[in-house]
Amino acid sequence: MAPELVSIVVLMVMFVIATVLPVNLGALGFVAAAGVGVLVGGLSLDDSLAGFPTDLFLILVGLMFLFGIAQQNGTIDRLVEWSMRLVRGHLVAAPWIFFTLATVFSAIGALFAVAIVAPLAMPFARRYRIDLLLMGMMVVHGSLAGAFSPISVYGVVVNGLVAGTALPSSPLTLFLVPLAFNVLVAAVVFVLLGGRDLVGVRSHHVEEEDEEPPADSDVSVPGGVGVRERTRAGTRVTYPQVLTLAAIVVLAVGTVGFGLDVGVLAMSLAVVLGILSPAGNAEALKGISWSTVLLVCGVITYVGVLQEVGTTELVGQGIVALGVPLVVALLLLYLGGVLSAFASSAGIIGVAIPLALPFLLQGSVSAIGMVAALAVATTIVDVSPFSTNGALVLASTPEDVDRDAFYRRMLVYAGSVVVAGPLLAWALLILPGWL
């Protein structure tokens, strides 16, 4: 069997194993890169592993380390607290507040924005009788809305893959298109899942400096039902939180405004925070998701082998041979979307763009539009309870909720998104040809 076909079979086996067994897809990627490269492709071991993304490794670790510190010292909780105060008296805004929080955290580099926001948003929704599916999906779509900023992990991965090719690129377009797409989807979700019922529902916030907050009690207010809430006042921003907030601002300004390396800057800021405020630094380092780092780096390393043995060129030629560019584009979007619903979006998009490269080089469809559509199609399905984001929402559901029933609701919603998401991305981004 030709090396190209062997590498494709191995790739399919990798996805099957990672789906049915608790085996990291990235670990499989490293093993496959060495095995296929040396035994089938005739490459040396060094050449087989040469595709390891050193820059991306530093970005992933640096961002996770920095935001792990922010989580440990309470900076993230402080930001959420300030945002929650904005909805006092106007619960209709609550889902959008959490949507915006997830967007901002994701856009400035927090890989697991859902893990930060969902544990706060879901109990909040339960407390104020907001539909849990509405709140959970708003958080996920918020995270996806900011997922492709130039300093986010997804944005760096995709821009890095495109930058190494002859394709035109537009980091700003890649950021804004998924942002607008997910805002649109979130608006539809908000309407369909009862967001309009929150109009006129208000909560009243009463601060008491010296008393423990008593149990909530419902009260009638003009125009709807309100919840009177008492909390402790006088909590001040701490020194470590001030430093961390400043570090986040420096990260955003330094990378976007001055083009500084995301990974180096994030790691440097994390180290500075560790020196100036050591508390929580060790815990933040332990909290780095090494499984995600392994996943992304392993998959991209194997993609390097696919390129070396000619697999991407072979697949691209086969796709182009279909002869109908719009149909080919739609099939690629569905392929990425369906696979991503059961596997890692970061891993799938790292494979999808190199596989689509020969097709994109033909110029039959807009390369910028197709890359943006692939970004949308492979991430919009992260609402699935089988994906990381969907699983985090399910795990954040309060204990007094019937999780089996909620799981079934998530499955129905995820199935609808898998069917409609890639088609909508194709219809809005590829078919008109406006990008």
Automatic annotation (TrEMBL):
According to the entry, every stretch annotated as the Dicarboxylate carrier MatC N-terminal domain falls at: 1-147
Keywords assigned by UniProt?
A: Membrane, Transmembrane, Transmembrane helix
Q: Where are the transmembrane segments?
A: 5-21, 57-76, 96-120, 132-152, 172-193, 242-275, 287-306, 318-335, 341-361, 406-431
Q: Name one Pfam family in it.
A: MatC_N
Query: What name does the UniProt record give this protein?
Result: SLC13 family permease
